[in-house]
Amino acid sequence: MSDALLSLVLYEKKYVISRDDTLYSHFLSTGRDFIRYLDEAISIADTFGTRDILENIAQQHTRYRTLFEKEAKYLKSHQAYGSDWYKAEKEKVVEGMIEELNNLDLYIEDDTKGRIKGLAEAGTRALRVALVMVAFSLALGIFIAAGLTRSITKPLSTMKKKTQEISKGNFESPLNISSPPEIGELARAFNLMCHRLGEMDKMKSDFFSFMAHELRTPLSSIKAGISLLEKNTQYWD
């Protein structure tokens, strides 16, 4: 837009001096290009500040073109007119457009810096959130791992104690472990083993009791026979 504006001013000044219709046509063509650039800039403006500046430039351009076209009519008709006044007004409008274009550059520069700063701050916040989430996930993972470890080691410790009791001959008090499922399955197999060991221990006790009873009767007979023999021996003597 700055280049198109400078071209406009150049064609306008040359036309005022030479009154060449070709220069007038170039002025109109360049003016259409300037308006096209301006409309494109307005269509992509994403802030109220940028849009306000562009609309001010559009109004000043309309004022500048109106002044030039009125002056061109006077020049074509060779009528006397206040050339100094038109010159001063056009220069005032052109200076206003140049100032607005400079303001637009500064505004865009400040807005870009602000957005970059905002992106940097957003990145910092995102990094902090990510670090917090990582720390939370790590703590949660440690907590879950500790819970899983305890859920495994505690039943194993219970089974260890029960094994020690079995080694002492205590087959009662079955294990009541339901979780985790694998340990629960092992506990059920362990209880079954304890039950069968208890049955075998009972069978062993019954067997020894039976054998003791069966052996006690003949031993009593033998003892009685020995006593009778001892008495008979004493009689014969």
Q: Can you put this structure into words, describing what you see?
A:
By secondary structure, the chain is mainly α. Helix content is 89%, strand content 0%. The protein is built from 5 helices and no strands. The chain has helices spanning 2-18, 21-44, 48-77, 83-167, 181-236. The longest helix is centred in the middle third of the chain and has 85 residues, at 83-167. The chain is rod-shaped. The protein starts with a helix and ends with a helix. The mean pLDDT is 81.
Defining traits:
rod-shaped, 5 helices, 237 residues, mainly alpha
Total strands: the figure is 0
Global structural class: mainly alpha
- 3D shape: rod-shaped
Biggest sheet architecture: none
Radius of gyration (CA) equals 56 Å
How do the helices and strands line up, and which of them pair or pack?
Elements: H1 2-18, H2 21-44, H3 48-77, H4 83-167, H5 181-236
Structure summarized in a few sentences:
The chain is built from five helices and no strands. With 237 residues, it is mainly alpha-helical.
